[in-house]
Amino acid sequence: MSSAVRRLAHTIIPAPMHQWLKRHVPYSGPRPVGWVDMGHLRSVEPVSRDFGTRRGRAIDRYYIEDCFLRSHAADVRGRVLEIGDASYTRRYGGDRVTRSDVLHAVAGNAEATIVGDLSSGEGLDSDAFDCVILTQVLLVIYDLHAAM
Q1: Which of 13, 55, 107, 111 has the smallest count of CB within 10 Å of its CB?
Q2: In whole angstroms, what is the distance from residue 86 CA to residue 103 CA?
Q3: H or E element: which one contains 80?
Q4: Contacts of 23 (CB under 8 A, 6+ apart)
Q5: Which are the contacts of 1, defined by CB distance < 8 A and separation ≥ 6?
Q6: What pLDDT digit, counting tens, does each position of 33-51 carry?
Q7: Cβ distance 124 to 116 under 8 Å?
Q8: Strands across the sheet with 114-115, in order?
Q9: What is the DSSP letter of 71?
Q10: What is the pLDDT of residues 48-71, one digit of tens each?
C-alpha cells in the first residue's frame, strides 16, 4: 500500500475502527516500522527467528560495524586474525592488511586458514597477529580467562 493511500485511510477511518482493524485483520507481510502488536510481546515465541534481518540489519551489527569497527578501522592492519570468515578484515582493513588468517574450531570451513581452539591456544602461534577481530565470539567461550 502506498504512503498516500495509507495517509488517506488514516484520515477517513475513525481511530477506534483503525485500532480494531489492526488487531483483527491478519497481516502476513513484513510489519511497517512502528507497527507492533504489543499483545505478542507476552509470548514466549520470538517475533522472528532470523535475528531481525528480515526487517533490516540486526541492531547489534549497527553498534559492532558502524560504531566500533568503522571508528577503529585504522587498527585493522598487518597480520589480522578473524573468526569464521574474513569479511570485517576485508571491509575495514583494505590494503593495510599484509596477511589475513581465519580461525575455525573444526576442519571443514573453506575460508579457514587455521583450525584451532581459542580456549587452549591449540593451533595458534603466540604473538603472531597485529590485530584480532573477535566479534560475537567471547560470549560463547566457556573458559574466557584461558582464551585471553
Answers
A1: 107
A2: 9
A3: strand 78-83
A4: 37, 39
A5: 9
A6: 776 666 666 778 776 777 7
A7: yes
A8: 114-115, 97-104, 78-83, 131-133
A9: T
A10: 777 767 777 888 888 999 999 999
Q: What is the spatial distance between Cα 105 and Cα 103, in angstroms, rounded to a whole number? A: 7
What is the greatest pairwise CA distance in the chain? 69
Does the reported pTM lie above 0.85? no
User: 11 to each of 2, 18, 36, 47, how far by Cα in Å?
Assistant: 15, 10, 20, 30
Locate 123 and state its grid cell. Answer: 593451533
The CA-based angle 89-95-97, given to 5 degrees, is 50
Distant-in-sequence, close-in-space partners of 3: CB < 8 Å, separation ≥ 6: none
Dihedral angle of Cα 139, 142, 143, 148, to the nearest 10 degrees: -30
Q: Whose grid coordinates read 578501522?
A: 73
> Is residue 75 within 8 Å of residue 56, measured between CB atoms?
no
The span from the CA of 13 to the CA of 16, in Å, is 8
Q: Please, what are the averages of pLDDT over each run of 10 residues along the chain (148 residues)?
A: 69 78 70 66 73 77 93 97 94 96 90 89 87 90 82
CA angle (19, 24, 28) in 5-degree steps: 110
Q: Are strands 131-133 and 78-83 parallel, antiparallel or unpaired?
A: parallel
